């Protein structure tokens, strides 16, 4: 087969693909311990930047703790937590800097995202839309860090709808970045009445139901995450579908 493991048309290695793959592999290898090499690396992107209400309590820490605990319960997942509050509003995306001039905080976040095998994106619902914080994280980085990896969406609200409209607003954004969302989503209505400050289910009689609900989504994420992780060791997907390097016109059809 052509284009396997970064092979060019003539059967030789594609320099761009080979160097990019080697750089990413080294970056991820150097940031992992040997005990976690085989584990699925999942980056959890928490979108809320709120520190006070009303409404109260602030829900993001409760939902985030529940999500991280549910992922760890699967037994072969290592979680990296990325918070929207660590970024200012977008002025210049990470990929617009010269490599030697990338700010340290963006370099660290780029490394965490690049090393992830899958993503969980958490958002409250603001005005029927995802919160600006989580979109701000996504807009700081290009598809090269997100592409060919699965994602899962978790939404929540203080009211009865559980952020479903915000969740559906995220699906086209994640798809465009190349981290296709799994079909199952997690929606949490009345989140302040569901979880305590540690992310534990307040009504212990409902614990099993919430576990099953979350694991349906995360089982899909783990399945696709393992599948893409393993297949990328056989076929480098960026050879025939490279990230855009200059302008959006690179995606244009020949007739455009």
List keywords for this structure.
single chain; 256 residues; alpha/beta; 6-stranded mixed β-sheet; 8 helices; 6 strands; 13% strand; globular; disordered N terminus
Task: Describe this structure as you would to a colleague.
The protein is α/β, with parallel strands linked by helices. It has eight helices and six strands; from the N terminus they run H-E-H-E-H-E-E-H-H-E-H-E-H-H. It has helices spanning 15-31, 60-72, 104-115, 132-139, 143-146, 164-177, 191-194, 207-231, and strands at 40-46, 77-83, 118-126, 129-130, 151-156, 186-188. Strands 1, 2, 3, 4, 5 and 6 form a six-stranded mixed sheet that branches. Helix 6 (164-177) links the parallel strand 5 (151-156) and strand 6. The radius of gyration is 19 Å and the shape is globular.
SSE topology string: HEHEHEEHHEHEHH
Number of distinct helices: 8
Low-pLDDT residue spans = 1-14
Calculate the terminal CA-CA distance, rounded to whole Å. 31 Å
Overall strand count: 6
- The secondary-structure class comes to alpha/beta
Q: Give the C-alpha Rg.
A: 19 Å
Shape: globular
Oligomer designation = single chain
Q: Could you write a compact summary of the structure shown?
A:
With 256 residues, the protein is α/β, with parallel strands linked by helices. The protein has eight helices and six strands.
């Amino acid at each position: 087969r052509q284009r396997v493991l970064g092979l060019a048309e003539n059967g030789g290695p594609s320099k761009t693909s080979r160097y990019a793959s080697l750089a990413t592999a080294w970056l991820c290898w150097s940031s992992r311990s040997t005990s976690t090499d085989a584990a699925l690396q999942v980056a959890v992107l928490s979108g809320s930047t709120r520190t006070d209400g009303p409404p109260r309590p602030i829900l993001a820490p409760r939902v985030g703790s529940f999500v991280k605990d549910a992922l760890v319960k699967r037994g072969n997942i290592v979680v990296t937590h990325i918070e929207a509050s660590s970024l200012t509003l977008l002025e210049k995306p990470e990929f617009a800097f010269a490599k030697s001039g990338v700010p340290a905080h963006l370099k660290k976040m780029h490394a965490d995202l690049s090393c992830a095998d899958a993503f969980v994106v958490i958002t409250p619902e603001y005005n029927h839309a995802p919160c600006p914080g989580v979109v701000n994280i996504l807009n700081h980085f290009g598809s090269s860090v997100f592409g060919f990896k699965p994602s899962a969406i978790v939404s929540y609200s203080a009211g009865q709808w559980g952020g479903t409209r915000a969740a559906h607003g995220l699906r086209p954004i994640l798809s465009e970045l190349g981290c296709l969302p799994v079909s199952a989503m997690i929606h949490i209505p009345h989140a302040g009445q569901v979880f305590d400050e540690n992310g534990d289910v307040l009504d212990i009689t409902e614990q099993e139901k919430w576990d099953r609900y979350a694991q349906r989504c995360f089982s899909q994420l783990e399945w696709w995450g393992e599948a893409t992780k393993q297949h990328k060791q056989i076929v480098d997907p960026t050879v025939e579908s490279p990230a855009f390097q200059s302008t959006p016109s690179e995606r244009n059809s020949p007739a455009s």
